[in-house]
Design brief:
6 helices; 7 strands; about 220 residues
Length: about 220
């Protein structure tokens, strides 16, 4: 008797049943739940105590965005901070460009771990700082270079904080979205790679002139 050909294993449930339409739906639902769980565990921590309108979802910066942002800080000195530093790439590159001390503020513990790994890999371990602090509660009065890659919804309240705390010599570099009520000193790039630089002394002068020209 000739040996029987082994049957091909059916892709589906245990027992060899083929995965039908209902199975595909169940698989899709399970995949969605898994994706949500990944977000909840890895990226959501740190947002829970921050008001919804001030929450900033993580979105990594592209290489050209990083290069453009740092180009607008070239030749400057003083403390450099990234507000909502994510995986730490901007802080590490700022340090390598000579902007020191370089500090990132981030609430998500997983992103802080990723930032530390990135710094170690770049040979910057112990030379840059990533702090688990709420950017809205950090005093920025000693910061001279501020990098802001944040959502448009947080720009108006952040503008008020920066105006109140930053020294006149400070420069703010915004990526992805500009500050809607500020006039940039300079800009670089196009589309999603565009960045804007604001010198606080000029921003304050413009705000003051606008206030003086407004009818009482």
């Amino acid at each position: 008797m000739e040996p029987e050909e082994p049957e091909e294993a059916a892709w589906g449930r245990p027992g060899g049943d083929e995965l039908g339409g209902r199975g595909l739906v169940e698989l899709a639902v399970a995949s969605g739940v898994a994706a949500w769980a990944t977000w909840a565990v890895l990226l959501m921590p740190g947002f829970r105590r921050v008001p919804l309108r001030l929450q900033v979802p993580y979105q990594p910066s592209g290489p050209q965005q990083v290069a453009n942002a740092l180009a607008l800080l070239r030749g400057r000195s003083g403390k450099t901070v990234d507000l909502g530093s994510g995986d730490g790439r901007l802080v590490v590159e700022a340090y390598k460009q000579g902007l020191r001390p370089a500090v990132g503020y981030e609430l998500n513990p997983w992103l802080l771990c990723l930032s530390s790994y990135r710094a170690w890999k770049a040979g910057c371990h112990g030379k840059v700082s990533f702090l688990k602090k709420d950017l809205w509660k950090v005093n920025l009065s000693d910061c001279y270079n501020v990098i802001v890659f944040l959502a448009p919804s947080v720009k108006p309240p952040l503008a008020a904080k920066l105006l109140e705390e930053l020294p006149d010599e400070a420069r703010v570099v915004a990526g992805r979205f500009p500050f809607p009520s500020w006039t940039p000193t300079s800009t670089l790039g196009q589309g999603l790679e565009q960045v804007w630089a604001y010198d606080m002394k000029e921003v304050r002068r413009a705000v003051q002139s606008s206030a003086e020209g407004s009818p009482v």
